[in-house]
Design brief:
4-stranded antiparallel beta sheet, single chain, mainly beta, Immunoglobulin-like, 2 domains, 16 strands
Length: 282
């Protein structure tokens, strides 16, 4: 007889004894449940109930590529019966990168959970988020236990992403070439977000604004015909319309610098993207 079957027999035996004694044992079945299922309206109390605290969703936030972030999560038994055989569910897809148990195995290095959790007791699991590439990630951690009668799930959803990462095209140098004095030359630059989070607060860096003869077409970011705005979603691109309008002879150089928030620091621009510019007036 398996341990699960023994647990079921123990529950039904207790219920039968209470019926013979004309007493009521909370949580006893009115009828044997269907195979592999548990109707909580039939067994509302006398089973283990494992709950993840503070909830079933774990958000690791925005973390850089090649970083490693640990989270400790609490598992509480809110029922009056011991939870046994607590484990990662072998019948479900295993937890996959970039998520893992810290150290590689349940309950994670530093975690206190074992296969049994007593009534009103708590323990911890320790999980790691370690993105090896840019992106936005979602994973599932299927945990299960025997609640005294059947296997019951403790599903957890894990999320994490990497910072926004903006890059300008036409690198390393955008050359407008030679242009007659007073004759403007326009160019479109493409800006791409290859990170896992939206870039926000996108604008020209005020302290490093372009100076004549370079500028945005029409005079302001993103330039007439440009499509960039204050936000650029992960995996998306937009365009900037630049103009070189020499008012005199000679070579000219400048650096286009954009600033944005990459998702790690809220409320302030904390990252930049830049492109060297040159042109000649003749």
């Amino acid at each position: 007889m398996s341990r699960l079957e023994r647990n079921r027999l123990r529950t039904f035996t207790a219920c039968a004894a209470s019926a013979l004694a004309l007493t009521f044992l909370p949580g006893c079945f009115t009828a044997k449940p269907e195979s592999g299922t548990l109707d909580l309206t039939e067994v509302p109390e006398n089973v283990a109930v494992l709950l993840p605290v503070p909830g079933t969703s774990i958000d690791f936030g925005v973390r850089p590529v090649a970083s490693s972030t640990d989270v400790t999560w609490t598992i509480a038994n809110a029922g009056p019966w011991p939870a046994t055989e607590f484990e990662e569910d072998p019948d479900q897809p295993a937890l996959a990168a970039p998520f893992s148990f810290k150290g590689g195995a349940f309950p994670g290095t530093g975690g206190t959970c074992t296969t049994t959790i007593e009534p009103e007791a708590t323990c911890t699991i320790v999980l790691t988020y370690a993105p090896a590439e840019a992106g936005s990630f979602t994973g599932s951690l299927p945990l299960r236990y025997v609640n005294g009668v059947v296997h019951a799930p403790v599903p957890l959803t894990l999320t994490g992403s990497t910072p926004a990462s903006l890059a300008l095209s036409d690198g390393p140098l955008l050359d407008f070439g030679a242009s007659a004095v007073g004759v403007p030359v326009d160019r479109l630059l493409t800006l791409t977000n290859s990170g896992g989070t939206s870039a926000t607060l996108l604008a020209e860096a005020g302290a490093d604004a372009l100076a004549a003869p370079f500028g945005f077409g029409g005079g302001a970011f993103p330039g007439t015909g440009g499509s960039c705005g204050a936000t650029l979603a992960a995996g998306n691109s937009c365009t900037l319309a630049l103009r070189f309008a020499p008012a005199g002879l000679g070579p000219f150089t400048d650096i286009l610098t954009l600033e944005y928030q990459d998702g790690q620091t809220l409320g302030v621009a904390n990252a930049t993207a830049a492109r060297d510019l040159q042109g000649t007036g003749e």
